[in-house]
Amino acid sequence: MSEKVIQMTGMRKSFGMNEVLHGVDFTLEKGSIHALLGENGTGKSTLMNILAGVIPGNAGTVEIHEKQYSLDHSSVPVSKEIGFIHQELALVNDLNIFENLYLGRELKNGVRLRKKEMAEKTQEILASMDVTLSPYTMVRDLNASYKQVIEIARALLQEAEVIIMDEPTTALTNVEIERVFKLMRTLKKKGVSFIFISHKLNEVTEICDAYTIMRDGIVVSTGKVSEKVTEDFMARQMVGKTLNYDDLYLKRELKEEILRTEHLERSREFRDVNIHVRRGEIVGITGLLGDGRYEVANTIFGNHTPYDGKIYIHGQEVQMNRIQDALKRHISYLPRDRKENGIVKDMNIEENLTLSVMKDLKKAGIFLDHAKSREIVEEYVRKINIKLEKIEDNITSLSGGNQQKVILARTLSSNPELIILDNPTQGVDVGAKLEIYKLIQTLAAEGMSFLVLSGEAQEVLFLCDRIYVMFHGDVKAELDRKEASEEMIMIAATGGEVKRKEESL
Amino acid sequence: MNREKKGLDLKKIVSDHSALVSFLVLFLVAVAVKGTTFLQFNNIVNILRNNSIIGIIALGMTLIIITGGIDLSVGSQLAFLGVVVINVLVSTQNVFAALLAGIGAALAVGFLTGFITAKFRVPAFITTLGTMSIYRSIGQFWMNGGGITSNGDAGTAYIAISNTSLFGVIPMPIIVWMVCAIVIFLFAEHTAAGRHIYAVGSGEKAAKLAGVNVIRIKTMVYVIGSALILIATVVETSRLGSVNSASSGVSYEMDAIAAAVIGGTSMAGGKGTIVGTVLGTLTLGIIDNLMNLLGVNPFLVNAVKGTIIIVAVLLQTFLNRKSD
User: Fold this and answer.
1) Are A21 and A214 contacting, i.e. CB atoms less than 8 angstroms apart?
2) A239 CB near a chain B CB, below 8 Å?
3) Residue in A closest to B206 by C-alpha
4) Tens place of pLDDT for every residue, chain B, 324 residues?
5) Is B238 exposed, middle or buried (0-12, 13-18, 19+ CB in 10 A)?
6) CB A486 within 8 A of CB A461
7) A417, A331 in Cβ contact below 8 A?
8) Residue A436 in contact with residue A425, Cβ under 8 Å?
9) Domain ranges for chain B
10) String of b and e for A384-406 (b: at least 16 CB within 10 Å)?
């Protein structure tokens, strides 16, 4: 099984004066799942866009199924054989499965749709994928993993032999990821090849046969996935250095209690949540999708009301009825889904960063103090190393990691004692991720407290002093840094009881 | 991302200042077609005075649209507030009392629209579609479908508001419009509340989580809008000394929205400028004036106006797409 379906050699590509691919080679074998790894902006997407014929390449040859194309500022013709599944799914929620599959290439007799035939064909494809869904199911009613499955089905419908998946698992829970992986394995046996773009290295060792790691527009490492190819090895190749859970951890002295909840409860969302955070402490809450951590955090932040139970700040009971109540008590919140909840897309970097404190930057009692605002921005740009050209540039001109840093600076700017970080490194590349981890550690050492919400067990293991694991609205386990492991988190997150070595506390 | 800037990027300048471009193009067309008549001092003053009322209303409309809202009731509000002011004026014979009653009514009206829209998340289009009928209807019921004219010494004093001129040459309505424009410009660009308006329109969830009081900001823009409508009401009704509950302010919402949109305000919210809206109002004014000077059949004027509105917005979307 070493038939090559795709062979790219000496790929070069420049945008303006800036060369982003410096002669990249890439080979995909038939019936394999090939991981394409690298930080954001290393040229992975550019390479894939050239392969799929979305953009032209400057130089190099591309061979797809023995058909060879020499690129000289020209494009690969868009071929049916290659299906590109983008990160943001392109399905219409208000149509059913077969209508989505045939969208734009409907089978028709004159103007009349051959619905039955389309549904049957769809049924066939789904059956061949071992998926038991009716073609008449509305896409709106599917969960994220089945939507991913439908995208793959659409690629198969046009007889794709190579399917490119750009970070397919970021929006999925572990159970859902398994479903997509199972499908990939089934299709692999039938000779379909995958190119799998991901940031999650554990997925690579789990499902991929081969890997290619890119850094700064060149391939730094490529080969078969074997025992020698560990997550550690790949992370090192991607960033050029190695990482341990304790590498970034700073030993700190924990001081008085800042936050405590007693029997916190919101009907159906979560029950009897008792957590606490001390000054200088980094506390994690993790779990699978639907565990209730997001709802707990938003209740503490005054965004979800009403609630039962009690919230104490500095030992004093408080009512969190509005976000302003939380801000007044020096709690701030870094939201998940940066695009939707974080950035204000029509505003520039300065305005995005100062949004939380704008109303306090007054001169003459009315007008915005632009000088002071600039000062604040420049302070954070230095402090947390935000890479930008001008602070008047639009926020969307920055890379994902730098946008996240701007939003992080916004949450810091209101001078909080406790920061709730909800998925703090979502859509951020490995380099920026480490910078953010370091920053959190430094700030905690300076006496700031953090409540970190994350679905990635590794993230909380990297960062936290203590970890709460939630399952369906219940806190299932409270783990100390010393004892916590990925395995224990997984057990508690799926509803199991964690067995400690010494059961006495 | 690594965009290089060589000299002047003409396309970017044009797309950033599309309101100015539309205005200049029409201005030059007007000069070319009817140069001497058009450029006469009296004609220019006429254009400015005739458009000052829409100009003032459009300022508030711009802020409302930036938050992602709309106010269809501005014309009805003008008639209703006019009825309140003139009635109080006639019965008390006190200009001050009349204005005070107007302020009270305007704040109440603006707060009602804003609060229903912001707090209960009723789409502004629906809220103001409703209030548009309500205010018009109440005004007509009160006046039995007719109008009311100011009288007495107080009436004379009231009429003086719009019918005086600064230095004897610049009519008061123009001054009022410009002062309002400057105040609203400073508010929008240089105060925290002003910037919060943009933040709410561009990313409501993000703004809320950052601590912006979204309900307060959304309510506020309708209150400011109604305050500006009151000012426009006083300018309009004191010019004639009367108000008609049925015909005053009819279709003003269309002109105000058009002025904002030609001025570059995005109906999706988040984008727009006060300077743009002033230029948008003037663009509409020049069209009217030019049609008039050319003796175009008045029944055709709105067709031409409509066409130019669509062309101006097409130009903006086209340029924006190019510059992305």
Assistant:
1) no
2) no
3) A341
4) 344 444 456 666 666 677 888 888 888 888 888 888 888 888 999 999 999 999 999 999 999 999 999 999 999 999 999 999 999 999 999 999 999 999 999 999 999 999 999 999 999 999 999 999 999 999 999 999 899 999 988 999 999 998 888 887 899 999 999 999 999 999 999 999 999 999 999 999 999 999 999 999 999 999 999 999 999 999 999 998 999 999 999 999 999 999 999 998 988 899 999 999 999 999 999 988 988 888 888 888 888 888 888 887 787 777 666 544
5) buried
6) yes
7) yes
8) yes
9) 15-318
10) bebebeebeeebeebbbbbbbbb
Closest listed residue to residue B84, CA positions, set B245, B249, B241, B251: B245
Nearest Cα to B261, choosing from B277, B249, B275, B282? Answer: B277
What confidence tens digit (pLDDT) does each residue in A197-210 have?
A: 887 778 888 899 99
Q: Does B191 touch chain A (CB under 8 A)?
A: yes
Among candidates A355, A367, A370 on the partner chain, residue whose Cβ is nearest the Cβ of B210:
A355
B12 touches chain A (CB under 8 A): no
Size of interface A-B (CB pairs under 8 A): 83
Per the rule left: phi > 0, alpha: psi between -120 and 50, beta: everything else, A405 is alpha
Task: Report how far apart, in Å, the C-alpha atoms of B236 and of each of B75, B154, B158 are.
Answer: 12, 17, 11
Tell me how close the Cα of A335 comes to any Cα of chain B, in angstroms. Answer: 7
Contact across the interface for B206 and A341, Cβ inside 8 Å: yes
Tokens 């105000």 -> residue: B256
Which of B191, B192, B211 has its CB closest to that of A327? B211
B202 and A345 within 8 Å at the Cβ level: the answer is yes
ipTM over 0.90: no
Closest-approach residue (CA) in chain B for A303: B209
Residue B5 near chain A (CB below 8 Å): no
Half-sphere exposure of A179 (CA within 13 A, CB side): 17
Task: Test A340 with B205 for CB contact under 8 angstroms.
Answer: yes
Mean pLDDT calculated for residue range A22-39: 90
The answer to whether the Cβ–Cβ distance between A355 and B212 falls below 8 Å is: yes
Residue B77 to residue B57: CA distance in whole angstroms: 11
How distant is the Cα of A366 from the closest Cα of chain B, in angstroms?
A: 6
Whether residue B196 lies within 8 A of chain A, CB to CB, comes out as yes
Q: Are B205 and A341 in contact (CB under 8 A)?
A: yes
- Which residues of chain B lie closer than 8 angstroms to A397, CB-CB? 1
In chain B, positions 260-279, which contact chain A (CB-CB < 8 Å)? 270-271
Cα angle A445, A449, A454 (rounded to 5 degrees) comes to: 110
The domain B15-318 having CATH identifier 3.40.190: the answer here is no
Say how many Å lie between the first and final Cα of chain B, rounded: 11
Q: Is B193 helix (H, G, I), strand (E, B) or coil?
A: helix
Contact B39, B299 (CB under 8 A): no
Amino acid at A166: D
Q: With an 8 Å Cβ cutoff, are A346 and B207 in contact?
A: no
Copy the structure tokens of residue A151. Answer: 């995208």
**Does the distance separating the beta carbons of B213 and A335 come in below 8 Å?**
no
Instruction: Measure CB to CB from residue A356 to each of B3, B190, B210 and give the nearest one.
Output: B210
Helix B192-202 with B172-190: angle, nearest 10 deg = 70
Domains and CATH numbers, chain A: 4-239 (3.40.50.300), 257-330+416-493 (3.40.50.300)
